[in-house]
Amino acid sequence: MTATPQPLYDIDNANPAYHLRYSWTGWPAGGSFATCPTSLLETLADGFAKDGLRLLEHRWTPELVQLTLSSSPTVSPAMLAQRVKGRLDHAIRQAKLSLPFSRKLAVRSLGENRRVDVEKYIREQVSRERFVDTGFEQKLKSYTVVNSNVDLVVPTASARGRYWYNLHVVLVTQARHRIADVNQLCVLRDTCDKIAEKKGYAISSLSLMPDHLHVALRGNIEHSPAEIGRCFQNNLAYAVGNSRLWADGFYVGSFGEYNMDAVRRLSQSNLSHHPDELDGAVRNDRNTTN
Fold it and tell me: What's the pLDDT band for 266 if we cut at 50, 70, 90?
């Protein structure tokens, strides 16, 4: 009987570089929300810190509650949604308010860069490098994947709402070792598709370079960013002989249709009169979740 190979990279000890931002939006079950007391927000911030979350921005209007949070890489969107709702319910009860929430919600990944910019950056990796060997450069272009069947604008639906969970994952080879074997590059590219299919991810863009890998994907909402990064490290290492191809660290960042500047502008304006695309996106979240 063949023994199951042990992971080369321990998911429990993942310590990636990260930049993770999300918005959480909830709506009243009926009627409208009352005014939010300042003390409630202070209570929320203290509770979120225990969950690996930090409250950055908030909008509390009669029509909706929208919170923008930063997150540690061990928090999945499903966990974030659960903890935010639980903390809100508890804080509201403590404040002796009656604010019934709809069972539906929306969670959106955000970032300093928009989706179109992240995907463009990944797709242009080879041309940016300016290889001396033009023949190798042409071969390397075949390891840049643009999947037109994957639209990261489309959310993941669950019984409780909609999730937009888009991540940019970057792996770097051990000691920046350069992979020159095109057969190995082919195996790595094809294995990325197998990982995505098995784990419930959807890759929109991928660029495999001699010493690093970029992936833009829609994640499984039950999987944390740290878990997704380690999953690629371990499965890709196993595909090329179970060798420690990758450095222990990796990068994972969230992104979406609009950047944090749009979120900050929205937080300072009146939602019902806000002109830019984020206002429309928030209304659409409600239309698709109720």
Answer: low
Tell me the C-alpha to C-alpha distance, in Å, between residue 60 and each of 141, 168, 271, 286.
Answer: 48, 30, 10, 15
pLDDT of residue 78: 97
What's the pTM? 0.90
Contact (CB, 8 A) for 170 and 205: no
- Token digits for 131? 């290889």
Delineate the domains of the chain, giving CATH numbers in brackets.
17-110+258-289 (3.30.70.1290), 113-255 (3.30.70.1290)
How does 275-285 read in b/e, with b if 16+ C-beta sit within 10 Å? eeebbebbeeb
Place of tokens 């927000």: 41
What is residue 195's three-state secondary structure?
helix
Both tokens of 97, joined, read 């308010």
